[in-house]
Amino acid sequence: MSKVWYPLGMKIQKLPKAGSIEIAPSILSANFACLGNEIAQVEKAGVKIVHLDVMDGHFVPNITIGPVVISKIRKCSNLFFDSHLMISEPEKYADAFIKAGVNNITFHIEVVPNPKDFINKLHDSGVSASICLNPETPVSAIEKYAHLADMILVMTVHPGFGGQSFIQEAADKIKPIRQIIGPDIRIEVDGGIDPETTPIVTGLGADTLVAGNAIFGQPDRAKAIEAIRNSVKV
Ligand code: DX5
Ligand code: ZN
Fold first, then answer.
1. Of 28, 154, 161, 216, which is best to mutate to test ligand 1, by the most ligand atoms within 8 angstroms of its C-beta?
2. Does 25 contact ligand 1 (Cβ within 6 A)?
């Protein structure tokens, strides 16, 4: 992977240091016809991170957005762009996403044979690196590499679609992961996060909450974010 150039004038964002609870609205449930405006609403409500779900129709049975769309929304927002690559060959496309302006690349452990090299390459390119596990993937799959990452993403639904029901057994992996990585690496959860499931996952040790339907599926995004914030249990 070559050294990449960020878009001119772009502020280089850093993942907030572990220790705070962050809410990362997923645009999957937003109105894609006016993404700039949708993202501005959550930015105004005080979030620091926006979660961008990239799907290839191969690793998951759905297709969403790619670097072209991300490069356009990069021009409208200074939020931290947390890209979740639900694609089969993330190593092949990482450069394009970094050039488009993402600040974090989350890849699935199920499709990356050499996570250590990939994480190093992402760090060399100036973005943070996160490892994701599907609901059926055991903690042992990430054990050797978890300490190299900036964040571990625990899927609490099967990736591919918004608005699915939270899988408790998948969330049960949060505690053992926290024991392995300690307090300085973030644990993000994604899938079915709302004011009812937030106390469960934060109680287990998650600190970064992706929510699609519970935010962009609601008419008042600021109120929806506040409801999640108020339900955090630490
Ligand atoms: C699902 C995506 C999620 C999705 C979550 O494959 O990775 O980020 O947007 O949606 P909700 O919060 O509606 O479950
Ligand atoms: Zn996601």
1. 28
2. no
Establish whether 190 is a catalytic residue.
yes
pLDDT tens readout for residues 115-172: 999 999 999 999 999 999 999 999 999 999 999 999 999 999 999 999 999 999 999 9
Q: Ligand 1, from 32, 49, 198, 210: best to mutate by most atoms within 8 Å of Cβ?
A: 210
Give pLDDT tens digits for 171-215.
Answer: 999 999 999 999 999 999 999 999 999 999 999 999 999 999 999
- Tokens 């190093």 locate to 120
Cite the beta strand spans of 150-218 per DSSP E.
151-155, 186-190, 208-211
Q: CA of 69: how far to CAs of 150, 163, 206, 214, in Å? A: 25, 22, 29, 23
- Encoded tokens for 136: 């059926």
The count of domains in the chain is: 1
| Whole-structure pTM value | 0.96
Angle CA 207–210–214, to nearest 5: 120
Domain range for 79: 22-230
Residue 176 included in any domain: yes
| 159, part of any domain | yes
| 105 falls within a domain | yes
Is 126 part of any domain?
yes
Instruction: Give me the residue label for tokens 């993937």.
Output: 137
CATH classification at residue 139: 3.20.20.70
Is residue 92 helix, strand or coil? helix
